[in-house]
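Recap from last week: sequence in, structure out.
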Amino acid sequence: MSARFHTPEQARVADEASLRAPHRADGRFFLPWGRWPHSPLAFLRWTIARNVHDKRGNRPAPIVPNDGVSLSGREESASLTWVGHSTFAVHDREDVCLTDPHFGPRSLLLGRELGPGIPLEAIPPRAFAVVSHNHYDHLDAYTVDRLPESVEWFVPLGLAKWFRARGRSRVVELDWWQSARRGRWTLTCLPSQHWSRRFGQPRNTTLWCSWLLDSGQRRYYFAGDTGYFHGFRTFRDRFGPIDVAMLPIGAYEPRWFMAYHHMSPEEACRAFEDLGARYLVPMHWGTFDLTDEPTDLPPRVLREVLTRRGADPERARILAVGECFRIPD
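Predicted structure tokens:
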């Protein structure tokens, strides 16, 4: 505990205050609890450094056949289907919610290691989607252009204009801690520890976020892209109990460069414990070869960490692409 705080309660109040502090100045967003730790030369240093990981035999995630037809009907309970990377189809009763939908063949110049787990055409017109930020592996123009125009989009500040320019007018833009209603759902935009940049959108001119998706019966936490930070404990206190936490475990090496904005599998376990969720469903691995670790390493490390921490293995559902996890009542 910091020397400034004499009690855990004082530290908790300070943590929550930082999550609710102003986070925009001079047209750019920033993290109130910390700043980007690297100079502009850090990316160059990373690209020319020797990779300590042997990526020979690098394998994508496993995949199981799934035609997606079940999404057109009603799910009597609720299920999650992993489409790949950070894309899930959350099927809760008659509703389908997509997270960071990416069905396209590439992320900017980087091709997919394997195809989507369900066909894009299987997404029903009644679906809605949340987007965490504008990086190309999370916001995919190919997918946005091809999903039905009836799909409603929920996005962080600064991104609605991009959607409207593509003819997608059903878009709701939110700041951190703001909520929107969509039928029986309450969708809350929450802080995450990340950043934004895209061609036509200079660095940090659009916001990044995570999402709390509350169907009225179940609560889902979708982390988007994030480093480990103190927000997870606050989300538990504010929104618990959480049924499913969709947390990133990949694109984490080398740690000196990635730790600020990408969690390692061990940090994802800590985040899961902080959130107090019933189930962990890992994501952000096995689809795009983004960083130094082999694409199939994150789930292996996650299993080792869970064993070391004595966690119940039934609470961590490591899915194959296309696999459907039916959430127990």
